[in-house]
Amino acid sequence: MEMKIKYPEYLNIKDWKYFRSLEDDTNTAKMVNFISYLADVPQEEIEALEPQDIQATYLKILQTFGDVDSKFYPVIEINGVLYGYSAMSKMKLSEYIDLERLAKEPNENLEEIMAILYRPITKHSFNGIKWNFIKTFKVGFGKVENLFKYYEVEKYDSSIRPERADLMATIPVSFALGALAFFLAVGSNCLLSTQASLLTNKKEKKQTMEAIKKLVTVPIGDGLRQFITSRKLPSLTSQEIRVSQI
């Protein structure tokens, strides 16, 4: 019988980064660590369960998050504040420089990147914008090129980015990967054509873009299976669970 866990309504950036951190663990350790993390209970309590109960709980978790798709939303409301994706054509050199540096390790710096790409909207004319609620967040959608014309975002300030990044770590990772996919498709050419690109050589720039591509081209559901179960559930024994934690 599976554990009684209050499953989150969505997988946020912080959760996703934790999933990725389990990549090098054994299959059993991944399951125990992930359930412990999600249920917010000590690992010892998970280890005390019957193996079949752990599997049942883990399967439920995979079913909860396994069908998540990433999609790009230019406008997102977070804690009552509208945040807009910053159009690459309007970015200043300081933004490009920080983006290029952080994008070298996109998974580790995902919330930092989002804190650059999404900033509070200071002015807008959204009379005709369409709204929807996705994973409890209010989002604006429509033709991207049109939406960019109807709002302005806060001036970039690197000193407040860390605090803003903490907030961005709470948004659905599907939003973040969707934004990165859009950046990869549209913004990478802008990034590499600016003076910021002079700071790195062609090999480094190519590696940066490949790192982003690798992150955003694996569906979240497949990513969970890849990083946590290696696409199959392990055969558990109580002894295996105990040894994996030593």
- Summed up, the helix count is 12
Tell me about the biggest sheet? 6 strands, antiparallel
* Secondary structure: helix percent: 40-55%
Write the H/E string, N to C.
HHHHEEHHEEEHEHHHHH
Quote the beta fraction: 5-15%
Count of beta strands: 6
Strand order of the largest sheet: 4-5-1-2-3-6
How would you describe this structure to a colleague?
- The chain has 246 residues and is α+β, with helices and mostly antiparallel strands.
- 51% of the residues lie in helices and 12% in strands.
- The protein has twelve helices and six strands.
- The chain has helices at residues 13-21, 27-39, 43-47, 51-65, 93-102, 110-117, 144-147, 161-168, 173-193, 202-216, 220-229, 238-244, and strands spanning 75-78, 81-85, 118-124, 130-134, 137-141, 151-153.
- It has a six-stranded antiparallel sheet.
- Strand 4 (130-134) and strand 5 form a beta hairpin.
- Helix 2 packs across helix 4 (51-65).
- The longest helix has 21 residues, at 173-193.
- It is globular, with a radius of gyration of 20 Å.
Quick tags:
alpha+beta; disordered C terminus; globular; 12% strand; 6-stranded antiparallel beta sheet; 246 residues
Indicate the topology.
Blueprint: H1 13-21, H2 27-39, H3 43-47, H4 51-65, E1 75-78, E2 81-85, H5 93-102, H6 110-117, E3 118-124, E4 130-134, E5 137-141, H7 144-147, E6 151-153, H8 161-168, H9 173-193, H10 202-216, H11 220-229, H12 238-244
Antiparallel strand pairs: 1-2, 1-5, 2-3, 3-6, 4-5
